[in-house]
Specification:
The protein is α+β, with helices and mostly antiparallel strands. It has 14 helices and 14 strands.
Length: 423
């Protein structure tokens, strides 16, 4: 008996140590799990950008991590400084050691180097550069901590009651939280208060030094009418996006948080926007322009696109199989072409992209383009087939150039062309 006592005591000590370790792990999991669970919760909201009417919401007041959506407020503060003459677009801002040490994504400027305000704006919009966010914060606030306090104060002023900022970049911080509703409030306030600078959010590429950076907001190229605003991602938040879309003068602003991948986030955003536009059309709030179509132009009219989206939605819920787009297109009677001048809004290797581009242009300036015909013309080239997106039927070069000027004011690329007899 006496010999077995030390062994039993040792066993009890090992059991106690194991139990203590399990309790420690359990406590850590209890402390850490709520933040992770809260952050990865899917939330979303869509509003009418003109009236503020909520068209869709799901847990819109649930607190989540903003990730790089934080940089929208960083840019808001920078636009405010520009508007009040505190800086100009050419003002140089120095890179500190702290800014240089930020985690990617970043430009990688070295301590002591400088970047202009304009380049900083473009770096934040496209590359979502964390080092440049700190450069802006330190230039405007002295320190990033002070700047974050300024950001939070401004957030309260514009009605973002459930948002707190702790840094300028969106890099992980437990105290930095927001909601889908608050992020939409910020997007609305930015367009309202600093609309002169909003066009930066439609920048698709930014060249700095010897490198070119693409915009992370894929909707700019894949969902017509999109003109901003920003993406965000950290591991704790999932993939986030605030988007603004303008079709035929009707603007929607939406936020999606917690996507599993960038693609699923984008797909969900497109689905929500499609449904919102369909709802507005069914309610009679959208009166789309009706460009005419040549019988030889293989283009999908706007009404057909909306009908297809509706049929596909019904199909998902009711039955398998694909919607026959040609059947839908055949319901719309085209008109014949006439000679004259045209405007070209792009040339594409993909027919669908050309179709979307010409329809988007038709919606952008309906008053100017109401008597024109939308057309996608196929032309052979040395590298394959090119699809030219055009609006036909202008009564001369002057009218075509005036229409192009109207489109350019809406940030739509355009050139006048003499269409001759090519309808």
């Amino acid at each position: 008996m006496a010999k077995s006592t030390p062994s039993r005591s040792s066993d009890r000590m090992r059991s106690f140590a194991f139990a203590l370790m399990c309790l420690t792990v359990l406590l850590c999991a209890t402390v850490l799990a709520p933040a992770s669970a809260v952050a990865r919760t899917y939330t979303a909201m869509v509003i009418d950008g003109d009236t503020g009417e909520v068209l869709h919401e799901y847990r819109a007041d649930h607190k989540v991590y903003p990730a790089s959506l934080t940089k929208i407020m960083t840019l808001y503060m920078l636009f405010d400084a520009l508007d009040h003459g505190k800086v100009s677009l050419s003002t140089p801002m120095k890179v500190s050691k702290r800014a240089w040490g930020q985690a990617p994504s970043k430009l990688g400027l070295k301590p002591g180097e400088s970047i202009s305000v304009k380049d900083a704006i473009l770096a934040l919009v496209t590359k979502s550069a964390n080092d440049i966010a700190v450069v802006v914060a330190e230039h405007l606030g002295g320190t990033e901590i002070k700047f974050a306090q300024m950001m939070t104060s401004e957030a309260r002023r514009i009605g973002m009651t459930r948002t707190t900022f702790r840094n300028a970049s969106g890099l992980p911080n437990r105290g930095q939280m927001t909601t889908a509703r608050d992020m939409i409030k910020m997007a609305v306030a930015l367009r309202k208060n600093y609309g002169d600078y909003y066009h930066y959010f439609s920048t698709q590429k930014f060249r700095f030094g010897n490198r070119t950076y693409g915009n992370h907001n894929n909707l700019l190229a894949s969902y017509y009418g999109t003109d901003g605003i920003k993406t965000g991602y950290i591991n704790a938040s999932g993939f986030n996006l605030v988007a603004s879309v303008n079709r035929n003068g009707k603007r929607l602003i939406a936020a999606v948080f917690g996507g599993r991948t960038a693609r699923t986030r984008d797909d969900q955003m497109k689905k929500l926007l499609d449904r919102a536009y369909l709802k507005l059309k069914e309610d009679g709030e959208i009166m789309p322009p009706r460009p005419r179509f040549s019988p030889d132009d293989k283009i999908l009219p706007a009404d057909a696109q909306l009908l297809i989206a509706k049929l596909e939605s019904q199909r998902e819920a009711e039955q398998p199989g694909r919607v026959d787009t040609q059947t839908v297109v055949s319901r719309i009677k085209p008109e014949t072409a006439t000679d004259g001048w045209a405007i070209q809004v792009g040339a594409f290797s993909d027919q669908r992209r050309a179709q979307e581009a010409v329809l988007a242009a038709a919606r952008t300036a309906p008053d100017v383009l109401r008597l024109t015909r939308a057309a996608v013309e196929q032309q052979a080239s040395g590298t394959g087939v090119v699809y030219r997106a055009r609006l036909l039927g202008f009564e001369g070069e002057t009218a075509a150039r005036a229409a192009c000027a109207a489109l350019r004011r809406e940030k739509v690329a355009c050139i006048p062309v003499n269409a001759g007899g090519a309808g």
